[in-house]
Amino acid sequence: MIHTSDKKIQSKEEGREYIFLAGSMNTTVDNNWRQDVVNQLDSVYHFYDPTNNNHDKLNDSQMKEHIKWELDALKMADKIILNFLPNAQSPISLVELGLYMSTSKLIVICPKEFHQSRYVHVLCKQYCTPYFHNMNDALSTISTN
User: Using the 8-state DSSP alphabet, how is residue 78 labeled?
Assistant: First the structure.
């Protein structure tokens, strides 16, 4: 099941793990990495997907609610997949990295082409956070746990 910010967060279903799909947005391309994750892991997990196609059109009040939803969903999630895309700036994702670096929830995907990949790699190594250069390696690790 996919939970999005257009609905209030419900209590977690017992016996299910929840994954927050954090990271770079790629709404203008055909390949949506979030949907790929859901397709590969769907039968096992519930997902918090922060994608909001109207993000740039949200007024101040709507944006505040969206941000609060994201913060609550991040807190409730059992795992956070944080995916940095090669050509993205991803300032919010870098904030999320900092917020959850010292937890055991975080799984980071960061290709060498990402403009801050060296910084991300050093942080992950310092905090023993799982770090991958591509999504397939990360998902195979999640699938075996």
Answer: S
Q: Is 43 exposed, middle or buried (0-12, 13-18, 19+ CB in 10 A)?
A: exposed
Is the CATH number 3.90.1150.10 carried by domain 2-144? no
Q: Are 101 and 22 in contact (CB under 8 A)?
A: no
Distance CA(13)–CA(107), nearest Å, equals: 22
For the stretch 53-57, contacts whose Cβ atoms lie closer than 8 Å and that sit 24 or more positions apart, written own/partner, are 53/27, 55/25
The domain locations on the chain are 2-144
Residue 88: pLDDT over 60: yes
pTM: 0.93
Token look-up 């919010």 returns 92
